[in-house]
Amino acid sequence: MSYAITYFHPRVKAEIENWPDGILADYARLVELLAEFGPNLRMPHSRIMGSGLFELRLKGKEGIGRAFYCFLIKRRIVILHAFIKKTKSTPEYELKIARKRMKEVKNG
Asked: Using CA atoms, how far apart are residues 21 and 63, in angstroms rounded to an integer?
């Protein structure tokens, strides 16, 4: 039984769909694995960020992308925030956005 993937807001999905082709192709591949394996998807594809937040780690010839997500009851995954990475470490403000959205999703 697989997991259902939803998006925090249509803007998140639209932003991902506008990514460069190589990163978008990797996203399509990894989101399929995420739907199949859920919380069992680990490094190098997914990383635990703490407090219920996870990171999907995407690569393409154009660069690196990240998509933050969380799990909800009834085998649901919500893609909270996504961005193209421009620095070696994940900027704190990108994590803040994801954590804020995760609180909204989990607290109704």
From this structure: 11
Instruction: List all residues 6 or more positions away from 16 whose beta carbon is below 8 Å from its beta carbon.
Output: 24, 27, 65, 67, 79, 82
- Amino acid 1: pLDDT: 74
Q: What parts of the chain have a pLDDT lower than 50?
A: none
CATH top-level class of 4-106: alpha beta
The structure's pTM equals 0.95
Domain boundaries, the chain: 4-106
